[in-house]
Amino acid sequence: MLGNTADKRVAAVTLNGLGDPIDRVDLDAEALPEFVAAQESAAHPRWVWSDAPSWYSPLLAAGVTVDRCHDLRLCHAILRHTELVTDRTALVEAARWDAAPGAVEPKAPDSSALFEIEDDTERIAAEVPHDIDEARREFERQRTAIAASSDPGRLQLLLAAESAGALAGVEMGAAGVPWDEEEHGRILTETLGRRPSPGQKPVKMVELADAVRDALGDPDASLDSPPKLLRSLRRAGISVDSTSRWELEDQQHPAIEPLLKYKRLARLYSANGWAWLDEWVRDGRYHPVYVPGGVVTGRWASSGGGALQLPRALRPALRADPGWMLVSADVAQLEPRVLAAMAGDTAMAAAGRGTDLYSGIVESGVVATRQDAKLAVLGALYGSTTGDSGRLVPQLRRIFPSAMAVVDRAAATGEQGGVVSTWLGRSSQPPGDEWRGVQARASQPTASSAEERRARSSARSQGRFTRNFVVQGTAAEWALAWIADLRLRLARMEPARDARPARASGHAFEHRPHLVFFLHDEVIVHAPAEQAEDAAEAVRASAVAAGRLLFGDAPVDFPLDVQIAERAVKE
Fold it and tell me: Among the record's GO biological process terms, what is one (predicted)?
């Protein structure tokens, strides 16, 4: 057990499998990286800590990496909601662990604790906030919940994957994405014009704004205020309910084309313009802040820098260091492949085996074109009932009944206010009191037709959410298993001591391939040129391993588009 004292001293106590202390060692807090490195070298323990950003960041800064962890906050969030745990009372009452995952910015350990437990199989070390006793209590709550769950094996796998993702997120933030600042600036200048003075807009945005105002006949139209812009559009005879791109694209008016171009440039300027470059890129690295589990389905979010929303126009700025390469890989049609595996739908699996899934659906005779196949699949995943998607979904239901049954059951559960779970056991949260109130009012004999329509609409909306939850959440689990396996494969590769070191990546990664970017179904590895092919093979092998880990011998493959290049630009 390790606990920080007021004078920055750390107490290290070893516990047996029952939680009884065996011995104790006191050391300076500054000695923690050396202590952890020694434990990693000797036993490769599973470190159990409050949250990875708080504890792993200072270890990485000292050049120390760890193989495995159990992130108490992330695991608490899963366990207190999963329907696999029937009695969650103790977890719900432990409210101090309810902080949102990733909410704490990386900082040096302060008044926290770390403990390690020895049993017959592994040594576990754990860091938690407050006192060491509370740390042990929370860890015991979680172990008890897992053991009493309806499927301990799946939950343990989910928690291990989630925690591995936490390690990967901190590592990628620390190493940073190799970034060509000069190329980024060139793209901005080419797209927007020269960098404007403070308080001004780029010249190309100004020109487009003038063109929009001229076409609207409104010299005072405000393009940056949706309510004001909406009024200007309506005054010009453009009948729209919002200023969204999707609605504007359906309109025929001279102002629409320059307005859409203006909106695209405004997005680039505000989200990834020169101010972004100044704030987020240093020493040739973009350092994003990932939030594993930040979305209810288990997908990642980001709390700074927009790592999950980088525009494709900026991809040429992702550039490897001299003597290094970027290994980029993404999996084709991840979510429908996951659906086929979950459902055991052999027909759908066969449609995508060794080929583009949408093209395979066309060849199966379900639809006429690849675009129709894509619309049909997306309609199935997101519950479309109108337009082309709604028209094509019934054909999928006829040809792929097992796959469609999975999402249809999930939708029906959601419409009734029920909870659904992913393949490994992450559960959706039930709808709130307002939703239940709407349904209750509509069920009364005196309910008006408006109340009944509102209830049906909200029920369908909840059904669309749960329909997608089971697939998107399971796809997120596959992706977690992918990067968890990949980071360990990369860590076990011999350091490339003869290659020029990537010093900006930090001491922990300057000599070996390492993950630098992750986006739902895509990874990028920064590797010494002579190890790039080996890194690419590791990426492929990890994808195969992830599929087997989750779905066993299910006849579903997850083909990757893998490229090795100096810049992360698709050919």
Answer: double-strand break repair
The CA distance from 255 to 272, in Å, is 25
Residues, the chain: 571
Q: Read off the pLDDT of residues 396-409 as tens digits, 9 standing for 90 and up.
A: 888 999 999 999 99
**Residue in the block written with tokens 């590797």:** 527
The values of phi and psi at residue 205, to 5°, are: -70, -40
DSSP, collapsed to helix, strand or coil, labels residue 369 as coil
pTM beyond 0.70, yes or no = yes
Taking each helix axis from N to C end, the angle separating 203-216 and 256-272, rounded to the nearest 10 degrees, works out to 150
Please say whether the beta carbons of 113 and 13 come within 8 A. no
Cβ-Cβ contacts under 8 Å for 366 (sequence gap 6 or more): 373, 376, 395, 396, 399, 400
Q: Model confidence over 457-503: pLDDT tens digits?
A: 999 999 999 999 999 999 999 999 999 999 999 999 999 878 899 99
How far from chain centre, in Å, is Cα 166?
Answer: 11
Q: pLDDT (tens digit, 9 = 90+) per residue, 260-304?
A: 999 999 999 999 999 999 999 999 999 999 999 999 999 999 887
